[in-house]
TrEMBL record, chain A:
Source taxonomy: Bacteria, Pseudomonadati, Bacteroidota, Cytophagia, Cytophagales
Pfam families to which the protein is assigned, alphabetical: DUF4302
Protein's recorded name: DUF4302 domain-containing protein
Record InterPro entries: DUF4302 (IPR025396)
Organism of provenance: Adhaeribacter aerolatus
Classification via PROSITE patterns: PROKAR_LIPOPROTEIN
From TrEMBL, chain B:
Gene3D superfamilies, alphabetized: 3.40.390.70
Protein name: Substrate import-associated zinc metallohydrolase lipoprotein
Signal peptide range in chain numbering: none
Top-rank taxon, per record: Bacteria
One matching Pfam family: Peptidase_Mx1
């Protein structure tokens, strides 16, 4: 009995024992840690006294540079290399740090950065309802004292912030903007062909400065190939997102770019080898295959031009699209046969706005392929009825189309371009 | 034996008394609890003075994804557009009501939140959305970045949304006369398949008015206020002859409703709204 009693006492004593130090999850609570993380991030952003260099890689391609100074009052000021005014005038807006799925940095009122993500194409120069697939809300990916990497929450763009020095705070965007201006001078070139020469190699290039995209044309045997990469501007030139590697060359970008307005050329270096981009009246190498397959087209289908010829850098120089009720130009190889001679037409299509009926008129010409790969048109007559009052438009258009030097044929993503062989300064874009 | 029990009971009682309590601090700082805060700037102060304290209306202009369609590509507003937009709304919506219905009317009945978005909302069918509203509580206004009060059509478009939603709040508080629902009866869910001319010819002021009697009623209020009496009369006289009496009957019922339910002289309100729009 006594033993049972003692045992019971022991049990009772044990029951009343307690350990006050028990903690299921030791350390700070998740909310405390999250708050501390957000505070630390903000202190780091604000603490960089010379601000941050930022490079934004939109999911839609290319990359854009910014200079951002974060202030403690949840405001920031920003410069960008997007255009001349965004590079010269700092714009203020707000930002905030927020715990979303992950700690996030939100640029929550409009600034230069938002232009890329604007769904209005007139603002972004991108796609309707999508812009250039960029972001303004980012999650922290990795943080070191000198650099912060973030990922866009909606599109998955990448934003890399790097601490700026005093010199960079003053000049980072300024220097980049100069390079933008230098390289975009390529839009002043009057010729269709732009020849990039480096060492013993040369390539035809085309540049879309809106999308920040450069395309190289090179040959494998007799077949023309193209290589396209997005690029972005640096303080010394441009950097390709994908290096161009062909024939022992590996071009990662163009450095030390300079524009010479008198000669209309852009000089640069690649790995200390000098090169330049210059106007060119003819292609580096004529794409004979493209010309032949264009020439041999069966006539089952036509190509469409949205307007007339570009001449000396002026789109639709003869104003074909100003013809009343103009719809499009039907560029139709082997449209018909006359006296055993098949002919092509440069058919201007108009549409009656009320009935919707289409009418076609325009010159007809016989085409031939020269041995070096040019298409030459010889005027035969006209098809349809040319409306009154369009002579001033059609006469120079017909003269250009039937120029005895003919055209080079360049394959593009959407169809072909015909480039005047007489000086390389007139061309027309045709779409399939 | 009994003693043992007693001693055991005492021990048990004692041990229960000494069992410890642990004090837990439940008052922790939860992330985001109580809304987000930031250092207030001039825009925040202006909104506080003109919307929050007088009317208890929150105006959200800093982008908040969770207030909006999650997958849409949208832009935040420019800071410099916030005050012009809200000033316009104040002068063309709040103030005419204040003058006609007294200062407590808007305070009591207004939707409690405006959300501003810089860009339009692009729909997959190629259209764009300029404004939306949720249950008379929240109004989302888009294309704030293109706002220009000199563009009268766009200002009217924006006011259209606000008057429309506010109209819903009014009739959800006090119902409009039952006979309104019987003036025209061919309401349809596929209202968007018909043109404006078609809707007008059947006695509806807009395409959407044909959706259901409630929307018909608030579309009438909205159009009558943004177009003014002259504008409304022009719409009626340009409608086919058979539709005119229907529109006139609806007008009469709207005017009667405002008088009977809210003691507001609708035509006076209409005049004040027009004066405010013209003064922009």
């Amino acid at each position: 009995m006594k033993r049972i009693f003692h045992l019971c006492l022991l049990v009772v004593m044990l029951l009343s024992a307690c350990d006050k130090k028990e903690e299921i999850a030791p350390g700070e609570k998740p909310d405390e840690r999250l708050n501390k993380t957000l505070t630390d991030y903000k202190n780091q952003l604000v603490g960089a006294e010379n601000g941050w260099k930022a490079v934004l890689y939109p999911d839609g391609g290319a990359a854009y540079s910014f200079y951002i100074k974060f202030n403690a009052n949840d405001r920031l000021s920003m410069l960008s290399d997007m255009n001349a005014s965004s590079a010269a005038t700092a714009l203020e807006s707000t930002y905030r740090l927020k715990a979303m799925q992950r700690p996030a940095l939100l640029f929550d009122t409009y600034n230069y950065m938002h232009i890329l993500a604007d769904p209005d194409p007139s603002k972004s120069n991108g796609e309707v309802g999508a812009g250039k697939y960029s972001d303004f809300e980012f999650s922290f990916e990795s943080v070191t004292p000198e650099a912060i990497t973030l990922t866009g929450n909606l599109q998955g763009s990448r934003l890399i912030l790097t601490k700026a020095t005093k010199d960079e705070a003053d000049n980072f965007i300024k220097r980049i903007a100069e390079k933008v201006k230098t390289f975009e001078s390529i839009n002043n070139f009057a010729t269709y062909f732009k020849k990039l020469v480096i060492g013993n190699s040369s390539y035809d290039i085309s540049v879309d400065t809106n999308l920040r995209q450069i395309t190289f044309t090179y040959f494998e045997g007799t077949t023309a190939k193209t290589f396209t990469t997005d690029y972005y501007y640096t303080e010394t030139g441009i950097t390709f997102l994908t290096p161009f590697a062909v024939g022992g060359l590996n071009i990662t970008g163009l450095n030390a770019i300079q524009y010479n307005a008198t000669n209309r050329n852009i000089s640069f270096t690649v790995n200390n080898v000098a090169g330049n981009i210059q106007e060119s009246a003819r292609p580096t190498r004529i794409d004979v295959e493209a010309a032949r397959s264009f020439f041999n087209a069966t006539g089952d289908d036509y190509l469409v031009a949205e307007s007339g010829f570009t001449v000396n850098g002026v789109p639709d120089a003869y104003k074909v699209s100003s013809i009343t009720n103009f719809y499009f130009v039907a560029f139709w190889p082997k449209y018909g046969t006359s006296n055993g001679q098949s002919y092509d037409i440069f058919g201007v299509v108009t549409q009656n706005p009320t009935s919707g009926q289409l009418t076609l008129f325009g010159p007809a010409a016989a085409s031939r392929l020269t041995t070096d790969g040019r298409i030459v048109y010889t005027l035969l007559g006209t098809v349809g009825t040319q409306p009154a009052g369009v002579e001033a438009i059609m006469t120079p258009t017909i003269a250009l189309w039937t120029n005895t030097q003919g055209f080079y044929v360049v394959t593009t993503q959407y169809g072909v371009d015909l480039v005047s062989a007489s000086d390389g300064k007139s061309w027309i874009n045709l779409y399939r | 034996m009994k003693n043992y029990y007693k001693i055991l009971a005492v021990f048990l009682g004692f041990s229960l008394l000494t069992a410890c309590t642990e004090k837990e601090n439940l008052d922790t700082d939860l992330v985001g609890l109580g809304g987000e805060t930031w250092v207030k700037g001039p825009v925040d102060n202006w909104l506080d003075q003109n919307y929050v304290s007088p009317y208890n209306i929150e105006v959200k202009y800093r982008f908040d994804r969770y207030e909006l369609a999650l997958g849409r590509v949208l832009s935040p507003p420019r800071e410099d557009k916030v005050i012009p937009v809200m000033e316009t709304i104040k002068s063309t919506w709040i103030e005419p009501y204040n003058l006609e219905a007294g200062p407590n009317f808007i305070k009591k009945l207004s939707p409690k939140q405006f959300v501003l978005v810089g860009s339009a909302s692009y729909n997959s069918n190629g259209t764009i959305t300029l404004g939306t509203a949720e249950g008379g509580r929240k109004i989302v206004l888009y294309v704030v970045n293109d706002f220009d009060k000199k563009q009268k059509d766009e200002v009217k478009q924006m006011l259209h949304t606000i008057h429309h939603e506010f109209g819903h709040i009014l009739h959800q508080t006090i119902m409009y006369p039952e006979e309104y629902k019987r003036v025209t009866t061919d309401y349809t869910a596929s209202w968007n398949d018909f043109s404006l001319a078609e809707a007008r010819s059947r006695g509806y002021i807009t395409e959407y008015a044909r959706s259901n009697p409630d929307d018909d009623f608030v579309e009438m209020i909205s159009i009558m206020l943004i177009e003014g009496r002259t504008g409304f009369n022009n719409i009626v006289s340009s409608a086919p002859e058979t539709a005119r009496p229907l529109l006139r009957r609806k007008e009469e019922l709207v005017v009667r409703y405002f008088k009977e339910a809210w003691n507001i002289d609708f035509y006076a309100l209409q005049t004040r709204t027009q004066t405010a729009i013209n003064a922009l």
